[in-house]
TrEMBL record:
This is Dethiobiotin synthase. One of its GO terms (molecular function) is magnesium ion binding. One of its GO terms (cellular component) is cytosol. It comes from Verrucomicrobia subdivision 6 bacterium BACL9 MAG-120507-bin52. GO terms for biological process: biotin biosynthetic process. Keywords: Biotin biosynthesis. The keyword Manganese does not apply. It comes from the Bacteria. NCBIfam families: bioD. CDD domains: DTBS. It holds the Pfam family AAA_26. Its EC number is 6.3.3.3.
Amino acid sequence: LTRALRAKSISAIPLKPISAGDRADAKLLSESAGGTISPAEINPVHFTAPLSPYAASIMEGRPFPWGVLREKLLQIEANYPGPFLVEGVGGWRVPLDPTLGVREWAQELALPIVVVARNTLGTLNHTLLTVDSIRQTRLPILGLILNEPIASPDLSSFTNPALLEELTRLPVLVLPHQATDLPTLPSWLIPA
């Protein structure tokens, strides 16, 4: 998405502010932005254990660093024009600490949401639950992106896009397995 926006001369800045496990995504995101933002800026909060941030913070014996997260995001806003593509961590309801999760953090950021899901059997339930929960927050949802996780998709991958479009009344973009470029950038993904 970052590459596609930058190809249209939109200076998109990818962010993965929270990660757990390896940090390879931050390097890839930096490369997608032409190296204009460092992996450390893209990913200021990192846990070593490949778990939800809350579980990893318990295992590593340290609380979730809300102050660091907020400070780093303010610095990025001051140093880069945006728009910002902020990747969540594990899903809409993943806990970040005992009381707050991705949902509450998204409400604090007050950015429009793009739901990204696997285009496989079971995604209808997961995606509909996610969309319902986001709508309860009143945050705007721009659309859905369905990733083909394997080269040989299952039968549901042919029916999921149309059903999700019908049931959510949101636009759906399907990305082929291991796509490095978007086929065509839909208008709903282009910042106004």
